[in-house]
Write a structure and sequence with these properties.
The structure is a single chain. The chain is α+β, with helices and mostly antiparallel strands. It folds into 4 domains: 196 residues, PAS domain (Beta-Lactamase, 2-Layer Sandwich), CATH 3.30.450; 122 residues, PAS domain (Beta-Lactamase, 2-Layer Sandwich), CATH 3.30.450; 151 residues, Alpha-Beta Plaits (2-Layer Sandwich); 241 residues, EAL domain (TIM Barrel, Alpha-Beta Barrel), CATH 3.20.20. Helix content is 37%, strand content 27%. Strands 23-24-26-27-28-29-30-31 form an 8-stranded mixed beta barrel, surrounded by 6 helices. Helix 12 packs across helix 13 and helix 15 crosses helix 16. The N terminus is likely disordered. This is EAL domain-containing protein. It holds the Pfam family GGDEF.
């Protein structure tokens, strides 16, 4: 054993009762117990006087007489520092033994010494020592792992820079209190490492004097488990708020779920107490052989980690069967993973009460919670105004997700919504509080990055944004790849107004998308592409002004009798240079420029005029369907405009049909229900297009007033592709179960005709029967058919 200086200090760990937990070689050298012998022994065995452990623990240590290695005894100072676990509870002590010149009985006392830097790595948390300048002077490996910083980087770092901006004032005040008042402090923070990993921490410290100077010694404890318990408590509180309905909370176990909690209302409805329910699969109440389809919907929703609402029959404990309106909602953790489901059940045997609340906030997107278009323009206008005043730069970043339609088509619209929510959270985490993240429309986001000191700074921010978009999104057991194209425009270089900035960012984004994605900054060369699009927009304006648009009408045939049952109006553009153009070549631009509403109004006017002509010629009972886009039917005054046209052209209820893709209505159920009700009130029929293209919500469709559904074109094509037509047959059956007429469109060959007829499809439409016809040709066709009859 080596001799130590009188001021040397040995540190080790004790539990609450004063029993040694950890003992290092330096302590072994001082007292003679090896690291293997010391754990489990009481510290009091080293005391030579009547020192009481409870008294020492209460006082935080004191002067004691101790037995050292080699049988030597002498005086020493024992210092005790309380330790805390991840939940903030006191757990054990750090003990320090110091022999000073005044307390050493003689110079022959031999004690071992060890560097404090070797002891701190034994501590369970992130240890640190901070000087008055706010710099780290000592730390352990746990701190390096937490921060993902090298020792050189930690030595150069400022402690305050490790806190988020909003937490820094409290951190600064805590450090001041330690050094100026000798206070013991603690606070919670969310530490974000350089790789983006967020760790909730409880950090604290106290003043320690070393060699005439003072330092803040402290520990940072990971409190993720405590946060999880808090989230679980919030779950319970949410459940108790709906005490009038039965509430069941289940834990996801693979494709199944296990009950963890039920409330009193559940016990009253089902007849099973909590002890009889917890730990079981909710299907133990299933009524055998009843409502198999609805139960399969629940199983699929659990597997895909999505919400579902069904009405089916269950069996009470006493054997009675009751109707159960069950709404299941997934609960996600901080990583977006579904860990639990909340089921709210209502006994609707006597009455079925369903309520739907659609809350719209004026300035925020209801799906993601981000700023909406209105707030975006306000923020961007304000940012440009301040940048002009202070001679700074503003960056507008337009982000468009890559292959988002494929995500919806492949994984379903709920997966698409989940992706949008995750992307929104990632974008918010990648920018500063002073910046704005907005959802422009669909899968398009716009960011306003204010106070940009340099182009290099902007490049770093945009690169951080790009990296945040590269990680896949977990949904329903799938890893959904996410990518994006980013366009950037800077004030004042690329535009002097908000509109010019967004237009420049939009051009840059389109350039990025056309080159395989990534990030592109606006350049003058992009203006030519924008000018081409502007020319198309002017061409559309000219088409409206010079009657270059025209309608064709494709008949719908009765599958059994072969009679004409109605028409679909199809838009065409007779372009002076390019000839007749299909809608796909110009309606996208019309949507983006806002001309779609004016075009839609023109189409509705022409369709109503055509209907009026048919009726004047004696052809009644032949409705005409018109396709309308979300931009059209979500406009204020859309329904009133339909009613006015019906009156002006003398059309009876049901003569005009509005055709909307099924997926559009399902994406916004509240708007879909309102639109359906208002159309019925003014006598306009609703036709669902592309039925079965995505995920159908039959409960939702039952709430709508729908005349007919039109099979998706893919379902009709598959009839000849696989020879079985299983999708088309299923969709026909579903349509008939909903008591709706089913139309098969895009029918191009005899095999498709025979299959659809044989499986009960009500009406058929497509090139096999007739190409789209001009109004005069329609009159001629009807005359020939009626005369032939």
């Amino acid at each position: 054993m080596s001799f130590i200086e009188p001021s040397a200090q040995v540190t080790f760990l004790l539990d609450d009762e004063g029993t040694i937990v950890s003992w290092n070689p330096a302590a072994s050298a001082m007292f003679g117990w090896t690291p293997a012998q010391a754990p489990g022994r009481r510290l009091a065995e080293l005391f030579l006087d009547a020192a009481s452990w409870p008294a020492l623990a209460s006082a935080g240590g004191g002067k004691v007489r101790m037995r050292f290695a080699g049988g030597i005894d002498g005086k020493a100072r024992l210092a005790l520092l309380r330790q805390y676990d991840a939940d903030g509870a006191a757990r054990g002590w750090t003990a320090s033994v110091m022999v000073s010149p005044h307390e050493s009985p003689d110079e022959s006392v031999r004690v071992a010494s060890t560097p404090l830097s070797e002891v701190v790595d034994l501590l369970p948390g992130a240890f640190y020592a901070i000087n008055r300048a706010g710099r780290l002077v000592l730390w352990n490996h746990n701190l390096e792992r937490l921060t993902e910083m090298t020792p050189d980087e930690l030595a150069a770092a400022r402690v305050l820079d490790m806190f988020e901006a909003r937490e820094r004032p409290l951190a600064l005040e805590s450090i001041r209190r330690v050094f100026e008042e000798g206070a013991e402090v603690s606070m919670e923070m969310n530490y974000l490492s350089r790789s983006g990993r967020e760790t909730p921490m409880l950090v604290g410290g106290a003043l320690v004097r070393c060699n005439g100077d003072s330092y803040l010694f402290g520990l940072g404890i990971n409190i993720a488990k405590r946060r999880a318990k808090e989230r679980q408590l919030m779950l319970s509180e949410r459940a108790m708020h709906a005490a009038s309905n039965g509430i069941v909370i289940t834990r996801c176990v693979g494709n199944d779920s296990i009950i963890e909690y039920v409330n009193a209302a559940f016990e009253r409805i089902a007849g099973y107490c909590a002890e009889e329910s917890i730990g079981r699969d909710p299907r133990f109440m299933a009524a055998p052989d009843l409502d198999v389809h609805e139960r399969s919907q629940v199983r699929l929703a659990i597997k895909e980690r999505r919400a579902v609402n069904v009405v089916f029959r269950n069996r009470r404990k006493n054997g009675d069967i009751f109707w159960n309106d069950l709404r299941i909602t997934p609960v996600r953790d901080e990583h977006g993973e579904v860990t639990h489901f909340i089921g709210i059940l209502q006994d609707v045997t006597a009455t079925k009460e369903r309520t739907a609340h659609l809350e719209h906030e004026v300035n925020h997107d209801p799906l993601t919670g981000l700023a909406n278009r209105t707030l975006l323009w306000d923020r961007l206008d304000h940012a440009v105004h301040l940048a002009h005043r202070h001679h700074t730069m503003v960056a507008a970043v337009l982000i468009d997700l890559d292959n988002f339609k494929t995500i919806n088509d492949t994984f379903g619209h709920e997966a698409g919504d989940a992706v949008l929510k995750v992307v929104a959270r990632r974008l918010q985490a990648a920018v500063r509080e002073s910046d704005t993240v907005a959802r422009m429309s669909g899968d398009e986001f716009v960011l306003v990055l204010v106070d940009q000191p340099s182009l290099r700074f902007t490049l770093r921010m945009v690169e951080r944004l790009r990296r945040s978009m590269t990680m896949p999104v977990a949904f329903g057991g799938n890893e959904i790849p996410v990518g994006a194209s980013l366009g950037v425009a800077l004030y004042p270089h690329d535009g002097s107004s908000p509109a010019e900035l967004v237009r420049g960012a939009d051009m840059a984004m389109y350039h990025a998308k056309g080159n395989g994605g990534g990030v592109h900054f606006f350049s003058a060369e992009m203006r030519s592409a924008d000018e081409k699009r502007a020319a198309l927009a002017r061409g559309i304006r000219s088409a409206l002004d010079h009657d270059e648009l025209f309608l064709l009408f494709q008949p719908r045939m009765d599958a059994r009798s072969g009679k004409v049952r109605g028409f679909e109006a199809l838009l065409r553009w007779r372009h002076p240079e390019h000839g007749v153009m299909l809608p796909a070549s110009f309606l996208t631009e019309a949507e983006e420029t806002g001309q779609m509403v004016e075009i839609g109004n023109w189409v509705l006017d022409q369709a109503c005029a055509f209907l009026q002509q048919l009726r004047q010629l004696g052809y009644t009972g032949l409705p005409v369907s018109v396709n309308v886009s979300h931009r059209e039917y979500s406009q204020h005054g859309f329904i009133a405009g339909l009613a006015e046209r019906m009156t002006r052209h003398g059309l009876p209820p049901g003569a005009l049909e509005i055709e909307i893709p099924e997926a559009d209505l399902i994406r916004n159920p509240g708007l879909g229900r309102d639109l359906s009700s208002q159309l019925r009130e003014v006598g306009v029929a609703l036709s669902l297009d592309e039925f079965g293209k995505g995920i159908s919500d039959l409960n939702f469709l039952q709430q709508l007033s729908v005349r007919q559904v039109k099979l998706s074109k893919a379902a009709v094509r598959d009839i000849t592709r696989d020879g079985r037509g299983s999708l088309a047959k299923t969709l026909i059956d579903i349509g008939h179960n909903l008591e709706l007429a089913v139309v098969g469109e895009a029918v191009e060959n005899e095999a498709q005709v025979e299959f659809l007829k044989s499986h009960g499809c009500d009406q058929l439409q497509g090139q096999w029967f007739s190409e789209p016809l001009a109004a005069d040709a329609v009159h001629q066709m009807l005359d020939q058919r009626y005369h032939a009859q």
